[in-house]
Specification:
Blueprint (H helix, E strand, L loop, with lengths): L5 E6 L7 H15 L3 E6 L13 H5 L7 H11 L2 E9 L2 E2 L1 H13 L8 E8 L4 H13 L13 E3 L10 H28 L15
Parallel strand pairs: 1-2, 1-3, 3-5, 5-6
Antiparallel strand pairs: 3-4
Length: 209
């Protein structure tokens, strides 16, 4: 494992230094203590529109909309791990983050197999596990192992700074980061020794025929 491991963080919160950032700060500190290179991009205030299923990316290898999604794509390709984080809005993730992830995953054709994925969610009270499940679906359709922690990857707070008081939530983030480091290192060693898992040719079964 000569090259330094890299993790890309996408923060879906529009609040700079809000409660979602507190969770990510715990993660990033542990990752960097373990010699992992981290890039943290806050996209919550970006103007990101949703996918329109135009097929442009299939022909040109990138999304037709010239925004931050195309800038993120090569960073995602170079990363060993991806962390996506969001506050909870109406029991769901921030729509800006979802638009970004829809287009990022759909428009990139590079193999995401064994890149490690983790999602982090923040709420005042409820909706964390629904949002957590929503975000993990991007990983589980892409052959990406999902990192777990000692609890669901939740942190709680309403006003900026409240999450500092959630000792269990912050500890959950640190455990998540340690598990992520271990899993990325283990996969790197496995790839050196065994390579990536064999893949079959894709079988598309459409329900109308």
């Amino acid at each position: 494992m000569a090259e330094k491991l890299k993790v890309l963080i996408l923060n879906g919160s529009p609040r700079v230094n809000g409660n979602t950032s507190i969770a990510l700060r715990e993660l990033q500190q542990v990752l960097e203590e373990n010699d992992v290179e981290v890039e943290n991009i806050q996209i919550g205030k970006e103007a990101i529109r949703g996918c329109i299923a135009c097929g442009y990316c299939a022909k040109h290898g990138k999304c037709m909309f010239k925004d931050i999604v195309n800038d993120i794509a090569p960073k995602f390709e170079a990363a060993d791990g991806l962390i996506v984080a969001s506050p909870v809005y109406y029991g769901s993730a921030n729509a800006t983050l979802i638009a970004c992830l829809d287009r990022l995953f759909f428009s990139t054709s590079f193999d995401k197999t064994m890149k490690v994925g983790a999602s982090v969610v923040c709420a005042r009270r409820s909706g964390c596990t629904a949002t957590f499940d929503e975000l993990n679906k991007y990983f589980t359709i892409s052959n990406m192992p999902v990192v777990s922690s000692q609890y669901w990857n939740n942190i709680h707070g309403l006003n900026p700074g409240d999450a500092e008081q959630d000792g269990e939530g912050r500890q959950t983030m640190r455990a998540l980061a340690r598990n992520m480091v271990f899993l990325m290192r283990s996969i790197a060693l496995g790839k050196e020794k065994f390579g990536l898992p064999e893949k079959e040719e894709w079988i598309g079964t459409h329900f109308i025929r």
